[in-house]
Write a structure and sequence with these properties.
With 597 residues, this protein is of the alpha+beta class. Helices cover 21% and strands 29% of the residues. Helix 5 packs parallel to helix 6 (344-353) and helix 9 (478-493) packs parallel to helix 10 (522-536). It binds (2S,3S,4S,5R)-3,4,5-trihydroxy-6-oxo-oxane-2-carboxylic acid.
Length: 597
């Protein structure tokens, strides 16, 4: 799916702003979609609705919420194909226009669009969106379906409270706040009636040159033309006629981590035109190495979240720019879009900044310790949606040079139900490979399971693992943590595959200090990372370290969380903790390539 673009053939109108808003219930109220809302609240778009007001009902809402705005379409555009595109609405959306259903979309982190021709009228058009924030076994991320599943064993004295007094709420089976709303920009855009629908670019490095395979899909009839431009705007190759083929870029300038270089494929089709940027770089897993442009790459960076004060999970470009700047300040070169596909704006930024990205689906929470043995088999609804999300994510992100690997899930239960989880994930792993024209490596990020039983992780192209020795296991005992990690690394060494530690970290209250490193202090966080890194440095097959997390972030309330998850190297406001300075010293001295030859 192409990112909307303003150019000589296409108009683009951003509907961001303050919309009308009302909270609803678990039942869809069509009246709130057909007619202007009565006594609406104000609500900014794009952003989560949860933190924009100072009321518990907004923060803890369950079910539908309604957004409305009006727009007019300039007369000059009315002969064009007119589209409306939502960057993301979390977790599900139903969109109505002028009192009629326009489209529905399930899944909170990917774009969807609908054609407006024949539906828009002169003057004001009423656009209404019902947003459903509920998470359950059919959604990704996964929610528990009842308090029972969440709390495990029935505690009889409290049963009646649970059954009668507890208001309906989400029980997320994941550790980030279930922010909801219209999270990314809503845009109207036009194309000519005969238009370019999609572009796939697959560049391959051939010595000093590059062969750039392309596949363009168009609707209607028209002359097709493709021109490749270098970063200075000079034409480097050209093709006419065929919708697919290959072009050569002589003396190619590679896209490299930390040294981005972007080409542009300008496609013309009849009256339409679209400019698709791309980078030329190779990605390959060879034995226990992860190669970018044929050289062994070392991932230095963090797992992240799209999370900030007030915006919640809403797209926040200044914050994105700042986060990349802080990563570079620390010498980081990469991050994972934990635990959902991030905004297209962020990926465009990473393409330009030379930041390496592991793109992740929202498949988090696929582990239910209290459920029965074969629960993977009960996940048929999830599995179908999971496949759709993989397809849609790759369709959206396939051309980004910054993305070097797909993570199709975070921390499913791959050990206690090893056979059934393998049966669940292997077809999805194959699907991701089939869908990606660039055929990047695919992984499932696994957790502190009994790794001896895990048959999913070793079946992936790269073994990605989240490890918390020194926190959830052997908390406060760094000697034991060290031993556990060393024993485990000796085990993975035999698999002869590259390993990335995709999460490791400890909760740290900023400003809390102690002479002897105690849990929750800044000293403990730094000491923990020193101990772990000394081990990771000994193993050549460990090709990356991603701390958990880049910054502190919001979660549900709970005994384990002091106003959110505090494992950030930065606070939620992006002030460095002591450990960020430690990593700055470390990472500025670790090269992107050839760290462990
Ligand atoms: C994990 C999860 C991440 C949590 C983290 C933690 O393994 O992948 O979502 O936030 O642990 O801090 O517990």
């Amino acid at each position: 799916m192409l990112y909307p673009q303003l150019n000589e053939a296409r108009a683009l109108i951003d509907l961001s702003g303050v919309w009308q808003f009302a909270l609803g219930s678990e039942n869809l109220e069509e009246e709130k979609l057909k007619k202007p809302l009565e006594n609406p609240e104000t609500m900014a778009v794009p952003a989560s609705y949860n933190d924009q007001k100072a009321k518990e009902q907004f923060r803890d809402h369950y079910g539908y919420a309604y957004y409305q705005t009006t727009f007019q379409v300039p007369r000059t555009l009315q002969s064009e194909r007119i589209m409306i595109r939502f960057g993301s609405v979390t977790q599900a959306a139903e969109v109505w226009l002028n009192g009629e259903l326009l489209c529905k979309h399930k899944g909170g982190f990917l774009p969807f669009e609908a054609e407006l021709n024949g539906k828009v009228r002169p003057g004001d058009n009423l656009l209404a969106v019902a947003v459903d924030n509920r998470v359950d076994f059919s959604t990704l991320p996964v929610g528990n379906e009842s308090a029972q599943a969440m709390f495990g064993e029935e505690l009889s004295p409290f049963d009646s409270v649970k059954k009668t007094k507890v208001k309906p709420k989400n029980y997320p089976n994941f550790d980030f706040f279930n922010y909801a709303g219209i999270h990314r920009p809503v845009k109207l855009y036009t194309t000519p009636k005969q238009y370019i629908a999609d572009i796939s670019i697959v560049p391959e490095v051939r010595d000093k040159d590059a062969e750039v395979a392309y596949d363009i899909s168009c609707q209607g009839e028209g002359e097709l033309e493709l021109i490749l431009l270098d970063e200075a705007g000079n034409q480097v190759a050209e093709a006419k006629g065929a919708a697919s083929g290959a072009l050569t870029i002589p003396s190619v300038h590679l896209w490299e981590p930390g040294a981005a270089y972007l080409y542009t494929a300008v496609v013309k089709f009849g009256a339409d035109t679209y400019a698709q940027t791309f980078g030329v770089r190779s990605v390959e897993v060879k034995e226990d190495k992860f190669l970018i442009n044929g050289k062994p790459f070392y991932f230095k960076g963090c797992g992240k979240h799209e999370d900030s004060e007030v915006h919640g999970r809403g797209m926040d470009e200044p914050l994105n720019v700042k986060d990349i700047a802080l990563m570079k300040w620390m010498g980081a070169n990469s991050f994972r879009t934990s635990h959902y596909p991030y905004s297209e704006e962020m990926l465009n930024l990473c393409d330009r900044e030379g930041i390496v990205v592991i793109g992740e689906t929202p498949a988090v929470g696929l582990n239910f310790p209290n459920l029965k043995e074969d629960w993977y088999k009960d996940l048929s609804r999830t599995k179908e949606h999971h496949g759709d999300v993989i397809k849609d994510m790759i369709a959206r992100d396939k051309n980004h040079p910054s993305i070097v690997m797909w993570s199709i899930a975070n921390e499913p239960d791959t050990a206690a139900r090893s056979e059934s989880s393998y049966d669940y994930f292997k077809p999805l792993y194959d699907l991701a490979h089939e869908q990606d024209p660039q055929n990047r490596p695919v992984t499932v990020v696994v957790c502190n399971n009994d790794y001896l039983k895990d048959i999913v992780a070793p079946a992936m192209d790269v073994i990605c693992m989240n490890r918390y020795y020194g926190w959830y296991i052997f908390g406060g005992d760094l000697d034991a943590a060290k031993q556990a990690m060393t024993i485990e690394m000796e085990y993975w060494k035999e698999k002869k595959k590259p390993v990335i530690i995709t999460e490791y970290g400890v909760d740290t209250v900023p400003g809390l200090h102690s002479a002897v490193p105690n849990m929750f202090t800044e000293e403990y966080q730094t000491e923990y990372y020193k101990v772990m890194n000394r081990i990771l440095d000994q193993y050549a097959f460990v090709v990356g370290e991603h701390t958990w997390n880049f910054a502190d972030f919001a979660t549900i309330q709970g005994l384990m969380r002091i106003d959110g998850n505090k494992k950030g190297l930065f606070t939620r406001e992006r002030r460095p903790k002591y450990a960020a300075h430690y990593f700055r010293d470390r990472w500025l001295n670790i090269p992107d390539f050839g760290y462990k030859n």
